[in-house]
Amino acid sequence: MNYVRSQLFTNGILVVAALASVAGVGASLRLREQSVSAQGTEPLLPGLIDGQPDFLSLARGGREVRLVRREGTNDSWFAALPVNRPGDSARIRAVISALRGIRVIRRIERAPNGATGNLMDLGLEPPRFAWHLGVGGNKFTLSFG
């Protein structure tokens, strides 16, 4: 009987240790997430909040896919480059919605006198791809690295 009690006690300790480990990992992951209130932020692309984009393009590795909205419509997209094909309107709406939701938390100020700073000094790498977006005659570029 002593053996059974000691085995149950050992198993209980192992279960408690496993639960504590899971709770610790969950808590550490939750603490790593950024929690910023929406009040202190502003939209990254304010022109996109009320307007519809005229074009979207994704440039990656020297290749580009350009999506253009047909004139007079809000939802009819086609790929102008590399081939003239219809676009997936639902997916494009989802991308536009995601772009509308991007908020600015902190800004990196430009170097004075137009001097270009070294990206490595800021902990950044050269961008791997870029989204180009046209809204009301303005062109915006979002670079991702």
Structure, described:
- The strands form 2 sheets. Strands 5-4-3-2-7-8 form a 6-stranded antiparallel β-sheet, covered by helices on one side. The protein has a two-stranded antiparallel ribbon with strand order 1-6.
- It contains 3 helices and 8 strands, in the order H-E-H-E-E-E-E-H-E-E-E.
- The chain is elongated, with a radius of gyration of 25 Å.
- Strand 7 and strand 8 form a beta hairpin.
- The termini are far apart.
- The protein has 2 domains: about 1-35; about 40-105 and about 125-145, no CATH class.
- By secondary structure, the chain is α+β, with helices and mostly antiparallel strands.
- It has helices at about 1-30, 45-50, 90-100, and strands spanning about 40-45, 55-60, 65-70, 75-80, 85, 105, 130-135, 140-145.
N/C terminus separation: 63 Å
* Topology order in helix (H) and strand (E) letters: HEHEEEEHEEE
> What would the principal axes of the Cα set say about the shape?
elongated
**Proportion of beta-strand residues:** 25-35%
Query: Number of helical runs?
Result: 3
Number of strands: 8
Helix content: 25-40%
